[in-house]
Amino acid sequence: MTDKDNALFTTIRQPQNLRSGLADTLMAQIESGDLKPGQRLPTEQAIMAATGVSRTIVREALATLRAKGLITTHQGLGAFVSDDPTPRSFSIIPTDLQSIDEVLRVLELRMGVEYEAAGLAALRRTQEDIDRMQDRLDALDRALEEGGYGAEEDYAFHRSILVATQNSYYGRLFDTFGNIMVPRQWARLDRMTTSERKRHAARMRREHRAIFTAIRDGNESAARRAVRSHLSKSAARFEELRGSSLS
């Protein structure tokens, strides 16, 4: 490894999520062409020395790049930038959501997508779509009543809204994310009292019900408002969690 190669890895600021910070740094260097297709990456030890992070953080960052198709590894030779490092499709993988800051960024993305989707669904939904959304909503209600996270049911309900747009690209976009769009690991239900969990479940039911009712009734503006309100309140709750974790 040459000094020029190692010079690419200047010490990065250590953010709250070190793995995410290192992965973002490497991705930026690949996307900018500083790290070229086929180029061998510095060794784990060299990256550790240049960035000041642990071996575990380095390995997790490299795993993220592999999952995104940006690098390949060859046993005994090390890691190399992929011949075609441009991602063929956008994706969010579980290791992307290792901090509340990342969750909030995903919620911003969801708000942009689902705000428009809810309006289209209100205009285009069929009776079959309404029945599907009702089934998904009932399943979410049961999961919450039983004290569960309801992440899979929550995801299924939101996806049924995208399907109701009659634009398959919305559903396909959500499918690239899967139910990690509802990051249960940050819900912290295990830290809630029984009464807090009941209030949380009631709030979730109320917010989702408002979305469903607006779409069912064909009220485009109300559907958009309901989705925006729901996701904005979710973001506010995560902001509160971040504040409590720092205190």
Describe this structure in words.
The chain has ten helices and two strands, in the order ααααββαααααα. About 65% of the residues lie in helices and about 5% in strands. The longest helix has 27 residues. The chain is elongated, with a radius of gyration of 21 Å. With about 250 residues, the chain is mostly helical. Keywords: DNA-binding, Transcription, Transcription regulation. This is DNA-binding transcriptional regulator, FadR family. It comes from Rhizobium aethiopicum.
Radius of gyration: 21 Å
* Shape field: elongated
Strand content: under 5%
CATH architecture of the largest domain: Up-down Bundle
Topology (SSEs and partners):
Blueprint: H1 3-7, H2 18-32, H3 44-51, H4 55-67, E1 71-74, E2 78-81, H5 100-124, H6 127-145, H7 151-163, H8 168-175, H9 194-216, H10 220-246
Helix pairs in contact: 2-4, 5-7, 5-9, 5-10, 6-7, 6-9, 7-8, 9-10
